[in-house]
Write a structure and sequence with these properties.
211 residues; alpha/beta; Rossmann fold; 8 helices; globular; binds thymidine-5'-phosphate
Length: 211
């Protein structure tokens, strides 16, 4: 597939502040004169949003680990085929709130599905890998404190969330040139400053005043 867009994904624990950073990034990229579109995972398509409801609904207590994995993968392929492929040709940048690293960490590492996740993630990302992944690093406890009404995944025991943190840090060591970890326990101004630095280091064209 021909790619014009640079693909940025934002990852992190629950309550790590992804939305604010995504907002900031979107504005920054636009201010530089580049076109950008934002997606979220799971979601951003009609089918994906329906799948998201199933996945996050606390009533679905009996959803099995494998079903959960398949639903995340299904939402992803739908997004890729319905929107991402087109967006790669049309925009300068694509920002996605979570992508396959979430599956590697949540289902692969924290839910213990390991090898099957590695294989299926590869298969159903249809050859798409982010150019840059920013992991917003917070402790499980401080992230969860920021959330009022917890969904099915957020309601899991603290051990699960501690594993997520470990999983993301391990992943960032495995792919150091793609995955950049930002300490998100500090104030927003500092987090934005670090985010901008990561962006400038990765994409030299962002350094120019305008397109
Ligand atoms: P969020 O986008 O609001 O953070 O919610 C998505 C939830 O789904 C969040 O708890 C992380 C979880 N998730 C997975 O467990 N696996 C995945 O592959 C993705 C994309 C998200």
């Amino acid at each position: 597939m021909k790619r014009r867009a640079k693909f940025i994904t934002i990852e992190g624990l629950e309550g790590s502040g992804k939305s604010s950073v995504i907002n900031f990034l979107e504005k920054l990229i636009k201010a530089k004169g580049f076109s950008v579109i934002v997606f979220r995972e799971p979601g951003s398509t009609d089918v994906g949003e329906k799948i998201r409801q199933i996945l996050l609904d606390k009533e679905n207590k009996r959803l099995s680990r494998h079903t959960e994995l398949l639903l995340y993968l299904a939402a992803r392929t739908q997004l890729i085929e319905e929107k991402l492929k087109h967006a790669f040709k049309k925009y300068d940048f694509i920002i996605c709130d979570r992508f396959f690293d979430s599956t590697l960490v949540y289902q692969g590492y924290a839910l213990g599905l390991g090898a099957i996740v590695e294989k299926s993630v590869k298969m159903f990302s249809l050859g798409i890998t982010p150019d840059l992944t920013i992991v917003l690093d917070v402790s499980a406890r401080s992230g969860l404190k920021r959330i009022k009404n917890k969904d099915r995944i957020e309601s899991r025991p603290i051990d699960f969330h501690n594993k997520l943190k470990k999983g993301y840090l391990a992943l960032s060591k495995r792919y150091p040139s793609r995955i950049k970890v930002i300490d998100a326990e500090t104030n927003l101004t500092e987090i934005y400053k670090r985010t901008e630095k990561v962006l400038r280091n990765k994409f030299k064209k962002i350094n120019a005043n305008s397109k």
